[in-house]
Every structure is written in structure tokens, then in C-alpha cells.
Design brief:
4 strands, binds flavin mononucleotide, four-stranded antiparallel β-sheet, 9 helices, globular, NADH Oxidase
Length: about 210
């Protein structure tokens, strides 16, 4: 399998959602390089709540297809990443990291105090209510994977149309694990035309 290091601009422009994959196996080291790209993503207070389950066995992939409202292309990908947020880890992390920031001098002392207060406040909240906010961090890490995948000639497609409860049941996960998306990955067997985008004028606010 060839590796080609693309510029960020190339990767952004060449990425399209891929829903048809070749059968070819993805080398393990390339999958690990993708996880490494996720690992380096930024996160609120450096909490790094992302967790990934690598699925390549046919039986589990079929269950994921069912949990994705029968989007069959999910099962045709040689690898499906189940992209999650560890909600409890995030809570614990945010308190611990506010201390680190103080020590590293990355934030002003007044901001460290604000962070600590916020961490205390968060503890009084229902963690499930915070799931969408925590999922933001995971989305950034997933997009790192999507773009890095192009260096290995791999295509992918974000899949959010999922029954989260069903996915948690497949793996026996508690509610502390929030499933953010599935990411089928494989060598493209299609070359879709770029999908229409709004113009710059349309997205810039006055
Ligand atoms: C958060 C998110 C959720 C998505 N969910 C699905 C999905 O469940 N099934 C699917 O086929 N495509 C899904 N997509 C892909 C979008 O349809 C696609 O990104 C969009 O149409 C633009 O096309 P492009 O990615 O080729 O530029 C999703 C994309 C994002 C970012």
C-alpha cells in the first residue's frame, strides 16, 4: 500500500465521503498512525475524552450496520472505528488538568481559578447533559483521522445516523461511554464528485 504525504490544503480539498470500499486489508501500522493523529488533537482543558474501538470482524460489523439503520456500506469497509467520548474520564480530567495548567504557566492564575470553579460546578451536573459538549472534542479528533487517512490512500465517511443504545449493547458499555460516530475506513472503490458547498459570501456574516 502506498503512502503519500499530502499538504493540509490537498487533504482538505481531496477529502470526500467514501461509501464504496475495496476489500483490501489495511496494514495495522496505518491504523495506529490514524489513532496517533487523533491522540494529538486539541481538547478542552486537554481532557482528551476520545476513545476508539477498532472493529474488523465481520460479525461485529454486521451488528454495527444494523445499529446504523442498515447503512450497508458500513459493513463493507475493512475497518470501522467506533468513536466515543468517555464522559466520566472527562469530568475527572477537567479537575486534574486545571492543576496542570497552573503549574505549566499556560494560563493566567485568574483563569486557572475560573477553570477550577467550573470543574466544581460541572460535578453538580448530570454527565449525560454534558455529552454533546464533550462530543465536540471527539469530533475534532475524528476529523484528524479523516484527513490523515488520505496520506495512506484511505477513504472514510462520518456516520452519525446511529442507534447509540444498540452500539453500547454490542460492546457492553455503560452510559459513561457516549458513542459519537462510526467511521468506516478503507480503500475507495469510487471517486465521487465534490458535493456542493455554500460560497464564502453565503457563510460570512455581516
Ligand atoms: C456529523 C456527520 C454525520 C454524518 N452522518 C452520515 C451518515 O450517517 N451516513 C452517511 O452516509 N453520511 C453521513 N455523513 C456524510 C455527509 O453526508 C457528507 O459529509 C456531506 O454530504 C458532504 O459530502 P462530502 O463529505 O463528500 O464532502 C455525515 C457527516 C457528518 C460530518
Amino acid at each position: 500500500m502506498t503512502t503519500q504525504e499530502l499538504t493540509t490544503k490537498d487533504a482538505i480539498e481531496q477529502r470526500h465521503s467514501i461509501r464504496k470500499f475495496k476489500n483490501d486489508r489495511i496494514p495495522e501500522e496505518h491504523i495506529l498512525a490514524l489513532i496517533e493523529a487523533a491522540r494529538l488533537a486539541p481538547s478542552a482543558s486537554n481532557t482528551q475524552p476520545w476513545r476508539f474501538k477498532i472493529v474488523s470482524d465481520e460479525e461485529t460489523k454486521l451488528k454495527l450496520v444494523e445499529a446504523a439503520y442498515h447503512q450497508s456500506f458500513v459493513g463493507q469497509a475493512p475497518v470501522v472505528l467506533v468513536c466515543c467520548a468517555d464522559l466520566h474520564g472527562y469530568f475527572e480530567g477537567i479537575a486534574a488538568r486545571s492543576q496542570d495548567f497552573g503549574k505549566e504557566g499556560a494560563l493566567e492564575e485568574s483563569m486557572v481559578r475560573v477553570l477550577r470553579e467550573r470543574a466544581e460546578q460541572l460535578k453538580t451536573m448530570n454527565v449525560q447533559d454534558l455529552a454533546p459538549a464533550i462530543a465536540f472534542n471527539v469530533a475534532i479528533a475524528v476529523e484528524h483521522i479523516v484527513l490523515r487517512a488520505l496520506d495512506f490512500g484511505l477513504g472514510s465517511c462520518w456516520v452519525r445516523m446511529i442507534d447509540e443504545q444498540k452500539i453500547k449493547e454490542i460492546f457492553g458499555w455503560s452510559n459513561a461511554m457516549h458513542v459519537v460516530a462510526l467511521l468506516p475506513l478503507g480503500y475507495p472503490d469510487e471517486a465521487p464528485a465534490p458535493r456542493k458547498r455554500r460560497t464564502i459570501e453565503e457563510i460570512l456574516l455581516d
